Amino acid sequence: MTNTFTYQPPTEPWLDILYQDKDIIVLNKPSGLLTNPGRGPALADSLFSRVKAEFALAQLVHRLDLSTSGVVVIALRRKAERELKRQFAERLVKKRYLAVVAGRLHTSSGSIDYPLAVDPEQPPRQKVCYQHGKAALTQYRVLQQLASSALVELSPVTGRSHQLRLHMLTLGHAILGDAFYAPPQILAAAPRLLLHAASLQLQHPYSTEPLEFSADTDFVSSSGQLKWPIENYLLPHRW
Asked: Can you give the pTM of this predicted structure?
């Protein structure tokens, strides 16, 4: 975020609840809403603070970036928090994202395994770093290839900060609307970051029942195709 950033979180709906029981609540976070509060009163509104106002014992177990939309699970009891954090730490939770990236991908699927570290000169940005970076692995699959952009499915094996954005950038295909890493033309190619946490698979923290939660997004239709003409946002350019 730059110095000119003004936080204006969406308020409708206040909470988009996908599932709820005594142990967990699962929500569809909109783009533009923090998962957890930032520093200072101007950044106090967040998905977690909204849940916490209704469920006093709620505990955060993972997060999505401000601009990323999609599925977030929040624990409603301490025991559920411990168990869900264990599942995330042991990489038992399966995550599936949808993104629209610039350019034509030469292979329809593959893996990206560049190690990532904080960029000390531009925090909170990350960078590829083979000396100090932590292992990061992303699997990708092209779902729809257009003339100069593509809808891709991204499955992160690890959960590093900005992993999907930086991995796709390093592959040569920045995510449209990415204010952190995309060049100006690709940033301006969409009205928001086109990255969405489409589904989350985990075990219920009490019953151990396998669960899968999915959330729709504004840029992909129920048939799995781009909902609005992405190409109209792209300026004439070849990546």
From this structure: 0.93
